[in-house]
Design goal:
Layout: E1 9-13, H1 18-29, E2 33-38, H2 41-55, E3 59-63, H3 69-83, E4 88-91, H4 106-133, E5 137-142, H5 155-175, E6 180-187, H6 193-203, H7 210-221, H8 230-241, E7 252-255
Helix pairs in contact: 1-2, 1-8, 3-4, 4-5, 6-7
Bound molecules: NADPH dihydro-nicotinamide-adenine-dinucleotide phosphate.
Amino acid sequence: MDLELKGKVAAITGGSEGIGLAVAEALAREGVHIALCARNGERTAAEAERIARQYGVTALGMHVDVTKPEDIADFVSQIENTFGGADILINNAGTGTNETILDAPDDRWQYYWDLHVMAAVRLSRSLAPMMKQRGGGVILNNASICATQPMGHEPIYNTTKAALVMFSKCLANELIPFNIRVNAINPGLIMTAGWTVHAEKITEGTGRTAMDFLSDVAKEHAPIARFATAEELANFFIFLCSPKASYCVGSSYYVDGGWLKVVT
Ligand code: NDP
């Protein structure tokens, strides 16, 4: 299927590894020019260079901490200077948490609010006017199944991802008159460094391997009984970016191997 994405420009936060990088590669394979950002600027620039070489697109990789408004402003300026705007925005940067509500101080809540919600607000506010001028666009917010079905150890993650899903819905209503389609994606278990590092820590010195631990996690939670690769999830992202998904607006799509326990 021709996804009709060739020549578009996509901005992707948290693009140095994991899901963000897989989405960047999948888009670049379709001929999309790429602007990546993450806090590790060197790694992000190196991935951008590799993508440019491998797929023959223009790719920018920058140091940006998306919790900082001034870093977001720099990212947007670079996108404007390099590409004259963007057609696609993937708000992906984020990470799990571990706390109890009674113990977590305000600054912890604030950090993840900035990371999971305000980064998407600020980037959408900056890039949507450019999308309007270009005749339309796509914004995808990478939330989580935990936005609906919370995990016990991470109340701040669950809460901020739920807020991101509601933000998506409100933004979708505001922007569809300008041909900008906004959606949220709620992934389940996706095999990325966050999971492998966590599994290595938990199994250290126990005689169990990290892979055994992850296999048990998958069997416990997902009827499909395995993790997805980041590439499997990226396939769904790029479909939603495509004009082929022209009637997909204001929804939350679960990509979770059957993990969600209710019908919504
Ligand atoms: P990874 O840890 O593999 O990648 C996270 C990316 O975000 C990295 O590029 C990281 O780079 C970047 N990042 C983190 N904090 C910031 C920040 N403050 N500013 C800019 N960039 C930042 O995670 P995943 O690929 O697994 O996760 C990506 C998204 O998908 C997250 O929002 C996560 O919540 C969501 N998700 C993941 C699931 C999974 O099972 N893996 C399931 C459901 C949702 P750097 O550290 O250099 O900043």
